[in-house]
Automatic annotation (TrEMBL):
This is Glutathione S-transferase family protein. GO terms for molecular function: transferase activity. It comes from the Bacteria. Residues 3-80 form the GST N-terminal domain. Keywords: Transferase.
Length: 227
């Protein structure tokens, strides 16, 4: 199976890391192709959506992290399940996953754009293998693209202090939920943990100030260690 499963990824994308963690959770061997730098121009040709992650598996090509998660449970039901079988728990899991993908993600983008060190790391990946004259254009283009994305979503129109306060409220809620069983839903690890954790872990990896804040919550810190 290892030769037939390939994850096409943008290395620092939390959605690509989400898929990587799904595959590891289910115990499916895989290889990765990183579309950093100049290879990024080839990513839109992988799927109709033109975005990463894309998974090649068993002769199929699947795009979108949630679609990949559903496929993995359907194709490999005998391996650990990402989604619980209990209907109520599954509903809660899907709500957490959707929340992580559609809201928490934009906090990750905000901190990537507005923190000098985090943005420097993103630019470094984007310019890998590019000729020097192209690297001069990548930084302002990436900054403009991500800033526009934030403004269109709405977070980019809110003062930074307000965003920080709201993000901390989200952390407090997550920490309270984790106190019950150590996982977001039920007594076992699910796609909810992988989806939410992947967003937070990318902030931990790149943003020095909020790394300290996130890891100051004991339940979150222990949970991220398990992820």
């Amino acid at each position: 199976m290892s030769n037939s499963v390939v994850l096409h990824q943008w290395e620092i994308s939390p959605f690509c890391q989400k898929v990587s963690r799904m595959l590891k959770f289910k115990g499916i061997p895989f290889s990765t192709i990183n579309y950093n730098g100049v290879l990024g121009a080839k990513a839109p040709m992988l799927s109709k959506v033109g975005k990463l992650p894309v998974l090649d598996i068993q002769g199929q090509r699947i795009q979108d992290s949630t679609q990949i998660a559903r496929y993995l449970d359907s194709a490999f039901p005998d391996l650990p399940l990402l989604y619980p079988q209990d209907p109520l728990e599954k509903a809660y899991v899907e709500l957490w996953e959707d929340w992580a993908d559609e809201l928490l993600y934009f906090y990750e983008v905000h901190y990537r754009v507005n923190d000098a060190q985090a943005f420097k790391l993103a630019v470094a990946k984007a310019i890998e293998g590019r000729p020097y004259h192209e690297t001069l254009l990548v930084k302002p283009l990436l900054k403009t693209t991500l800033t526009l994305q934030l403004k269109m979503q709405g977070l980019g129109r809110i003062p930074n202090g307000t965003i920080d306060a709201e993000f901390i409220r989200h952390l407090e809620r997550i920490d309270i939920v984790l106190e019950q069983t150590g996982w977001l839903v039920g007594k076992n690890k699910t796609i909810a943990d992988i989806a939410v954790g992947s967003q937070l872990l990318e902030i931990v990896r790149t943003h020095q100030s909020f790394r300290t804040v996130i890891l100051s919550y004991a339940n979150i810190s222990q949970w991220l260690e398990k992820l």
